[in-house]
Amino acid sequence: MKIRFWGVRGSYPVPGAKTVKYGGNTSCTEVDLGNGHRIILDAGTGLIQFGKYLANLNQSFVGTILLSHYHWDHIQGIPFLNQIFDKNSKIKIRGYYGTEANPENVISKQIRKIYCPFEYKDLLAKFEFEPVTEGKTEVEGIKVETIFMNHPGGSISYKFFIGDKIFIYVTDNDISFPEINYFVEAYKKNDSKESGFISKGVEKVLNFIQGADLLIHDSMYLREEANNKKGYGHSCFEDTVDLALKAGVKKLVLFHHDPDHSDEDVDLILQKALEKIKKSSQKMDCLAAREGLEIQIN
Ligand SMILES: [Zn+2]
Ligand SMILES: [Zn+2]
Known about the structure:
The chain is an alpha/beta fold. The protein is built from seven helices and 14 strands. Strands 6-5-4-3-2-1-14 form a seven-stranded mixed sheet. A seven-stranded mixed sheet has the order 7-8-9-10-11-12-13, with helices on one face. Helix 6 (237-246) packs parallel to helix 7. The longest helix has 18 residues, at 263-280. The model is unreliable at 191-199 (pLDDT under 50). Bound molecules: zinc ion (ZN) (2 copies). Residues 69, 71, 151, 172 line the site of one zinc ion (ZN).
């Protein structure tokens, strides 16, 4: 089973000479299950590259897209995914269900002629939609746990139990300012008690990521940027590293790079993260996500 990164950027795509090394596409990570089925974590513009890769292999897309939430950088690739016009593709899309914020509503409204050259009803792939809420579920035969994270409008994270390995995907999550309450209707609807993520938010994340073999986590800002962008719902990489160390994570992948960060900036963040880990005298691998990076899970 293999993880492939197709888009590692937050907010909006940033093509150009300054982002060649890590890539400029927005969030999209593939879990290739090795049996012809795939799980896609978020559908930013990286999804378009994934679709081209599958088309080159002459394969349909059979699998599940798990959306963390519905901000542009997590859905913008869907209208341009090659396989939406492939009648042999079977695409299940899952995300949390609020009144407006649910995958079927978001995607059917996104794929309209005012935004792109066709309508949702023109698509040929078979689509299926299924809600995700906080708790336990199964995705493509894999046991999965989910919790809501601290982000404006909500965000949901996914923990996969793959054999004896634990892989966790946490994007768009603010652990730097856990006192901020991003509580929204969507949360209330899904779970009245636990999902508020108001107080003890970081402890909740800590419990969730405990002992992960592989953790992908929002590491968008430098400290100063985090302070300037308080309320945007993202984490300072130093806090991400600290939390991962505390949780005994074995491998941490810094993810959702700021669109204003050049390759050199991301290099510097990684270097600082590695220094911090070294100082802690704990053992933890740490990488910065880049397009094309592959990680074998089992
Ligand atoms: Zn994002
Ligand atoms: Zn977001």
